[in-house]
Design brief:
Elements (H helix, E strand, L loop, with lengths): L23 H22 L2 H22 L1 H14 L7 H7 L19 H4 L3 H4 L7 H4 L10 E3 L4 E3 L10 H5 L11 E10 L3 H10 L5 E4 L6 H10 L4 E4 L23 H12 L7 E4 L9 H14 L2 E4 L6 H7 L6 E3 L2 E2 L6 H18 L1 E7 L2 H13 L5 E3 L2 H7 L1
Parallel strand pairs: 3-4, 3-10, 3-11, 4-5, 5-6, 6-7, 7-8, 9-10
Antiparallel strand pairs: 1-2
Helix pairs in contact: 9-15, 11-12, 14-15
């Protein structure tokens, strides 16, 4: 083994490393104090009482913004703009309407603007101070079904025009027979809506209203065919209300058979068939409000084509409805007439009689006048008494079908 020599080195100078003087511990203490102070403030602010007050203020501001500032309108306009620009695949109405269930009809008395409650609308005989007795011949009446005027669908039988039949349409077959008197100077047709929604009011209409007053049947009534049979036996013509999209769509909940611009032609045809299959013996369809099919006019034209094919008449209860009048004029096979005025049954008897007298003056001036009114028991007897006075003015009270033919 070789021994290594013992070598040593000496540094000629000393190396010193001097770090800056950092008061780390003190600064850490300061940071901890600041953090604790902020946390204490946060805890104080987010106490239960502060949280409740803050949440309440946000709710109030939100409600105010949406109802007064127009936040909801801005949202809808923004959504429509996105639809126009192609940012969504379908129109929002199509999406909503496609989810509506039309598979099974149920009794849902939905009306325009305000839902009608069965308990509120169904007057009991005790409340009215009388028993509503309908004659047996009315209760036992069965409407004749002209089979050559109906075709079978998935929903049931629906009316259809048949040029080879005795009656070419259900309008001709089920219009109330009426013979005009010689020397008549004018005709007035009164239509009472919401027929069928209340059992008691419907019976009162049958026994209290004069002959030839037209009854507009709600598609959300129970026992629709029974109501048609009873009305016809009581000398009242029946028209079926057809809910259709209006400018107030979204506010008016008109039920699961409503015809919508957001649906395609096949879907609206299915809804119309579902509606028309509810019964037979009605003369035509009724639009309660002016149809509004924005950016979908072809769909509305298609609906009128289907109505023409069915052989039904059509009436619009909205005096401002010029669209239905125009579209019906292009379909000569659709017997059509529009409402002239809505009568207010909520006013006093004196004021209501004054309106009926004004109706006479209008009829003498225009020859044909149509008036609508809601089903209200207190005005039934007034209309009955007034109808007897018409003869002295050479004015006749006629069903809607006769008003169309006189027009």
């Amino acid at each position: 083994m070789v021994a290594l020599p013992n070598i040593s080195f000496k540094m000629p100078f000393k190396v010193r490393f001097q770090l800056p003087q950092l008061n780390v511990l003190g600064k850490l203490r300061n940071l901890r104090a600041q953090a604790r102070s902020g946390f204490d403030i946060a805890i104080s602010y987010f106490s239960l009482r502060s949280f409740v007050w803050t949440l309440g203020a946000l709710i109030v501001l939100s409600v105010y913004y949406f109802h007064h500032v127009g936040g909801f309108d801005l949202f809808i306009r923004d959504l429509d703009q996105q639809i126009d620009e192609g940012h969504t695949e379908e129109h929002i109405e199509r999406v909503v309407a496609a989810e509506l269930d039309i598979s099974e009809h149920v009794d849902i008395p939905i009306q325009y603007g305000t839902p009608l409650n069965n308990e509120e609308s169904s007057y009991s005989p005790a409340m009215l101070g009388m028993d509503v007795k309908v004659p047996d011949h009315v209760l036992n009446n069965k409407t004749e079904k002209f089979l050559d005027l109906f075709e079978e669908t998935a929903f049931g039988d629906i009316p259809v025009r048949n040029e080879k039949a005795k009656f070419k349409s259900v309008f001709e077959a089920y219009k109330l027979p009426f013979v005009s008197e010689a020397g008549a100077k004018a005709v007035i047709s009164i239509a009472v809506v919401d027929y069928g929604l209340s059992e008691t009011i419907s019976k009162l209409a049958l026994v209290s209203l004069p002959d030839n007053v037209t009854l507009v049947l709600s598609p959300y009534s129970q026992n629709i065919q029974k109501h048609i049979d009873h009305a016809r036996a009581s000398h009242h013509e029946v028209w079926l209300d057809a809910p259709i999209q209006t400018s107030r769509f979204g506010y008016d909940d008109t039920g699961p058979v409503t015809l919508l611009s957001g649906l395609n032609n096949e879907q609206n045809s299915a809804r119309l068939q579902r509606l028309m299959s509810l019964g037979y013996g009605y003369t035509g369809l009724n639009f309660m409000n002016r149809p509004e099919f924005s950016d979908a006019e072809e769909g509305l034209v298609h609906i009128f084509s289907e109505i023409e094919r069915s052989g039904l008449g059509l009436v619009s209860a909205d005096p401002t409805d010029r669209k239905s009048e125009f579209l019906a004029s292009r379909r000569k096979a659709i017997p059509y007439i529009g409402n002239s005025v809505w009568l207010n049954g909520d006013q006093s008897e004196v004021d209501f009689m004054r309106d009926l007298k004004d109706l006479e003056k209008r009829a003498l001036d225009q020859y044909v006048v149509v008036a609508y009114i809601s089903a209200q028991p207190k005005i039934f007897s007034i209309i009955e008494d007034w109808s007897h006075e018409l003869k002295s003015s050479s004015i006749q009270l006629v069903p809607l079908s006769s008003a169309i033919e006189h027009k």
